[in-house]
Amino acid sequence: MQAATDIAFKEWAIVVDALGSGEQILILRKGGIHEAGGEFRVDHNQFWLLPTQFHEAEAAVIPAKHPRLRELASTGTHDQVRIEYFGVVDRVLRLGQVEQIDCLAGTHIWTQAILRERFAFGREQGLYALLMRVYRHPTPVTIRWLESYGGCKSWVQLDAPVAAANLIPVLPESEFNQQRDQLVARLATPPTHLKPL
To answer: Which residues, including other chains, have CB under 8 Å from residue 70's CB and lie 6 or more apart?
Structure first.
């Protein structure tokens, strides 16, 4: 693991919260309009999670998460952001069949409807699933939100590196491995009625 890094990955605050609590171990991504060809790429395999409040809507997450989403929105500010969680990519899987979204039900906080919408969006159908090992910083850092962090992009370079020492895994290794293996199995052996797009 790196000693420090200035690389951060933008994700909704409610999703960062779910990753940080061990509620889910995956990030699902389509690609931002400022990314080459609108296609998502895993440019880094270790990074800070940069929580955002932008584009966040209750309709995109399961109803059980609405109170927490409102709580996070009410405590967030537009000029500062809290860096607390560090992610290490365990593996990247491409979802090429829309039915694979249904295979992941119950393993994340997004609604099936929003994932199906994202799957179909753009020139090429599909989504990327990043299976993440997440760590908590023992003393979270609050940084200024800079204009350069904005826009529809996944990756940003922070103004200064944030030390990644003494990080605490949010899930024990055995539990993470079990969840990861279950997700991989779900996606590798979808129901027999599935057909390629």
So the answer is: none
* CA distances from residue 14 to 10, 39, 72, 126 in whole angstroms, order as listed: 12, 23, 7, 23
| Domain spanning 4-188: CATH superfamily | Hypothetical protein. (2.30.130.30)
| Domain segments of the chain as ranges | 4-188
Q: Give per-residue burial for 4-24: e unless 16+ CB within 10 Å, then b.
A: ebebbbbbbbbbbbbbbebbb
- Structure confidence by residue, pLDDT tens digits, 6-25: 999 999 999 999 999 999 99
Strands 4-12 and 46-52: parallel
pLDDT tens figures, 41-91: 788 999 999 999 765 578 899 999 999 998 988 887 778 999 999 999 999
Is pTM beyond 0.90 here?
Answer: no
Best CA proximity match to 42, nearest among 1, 86, 7: 7
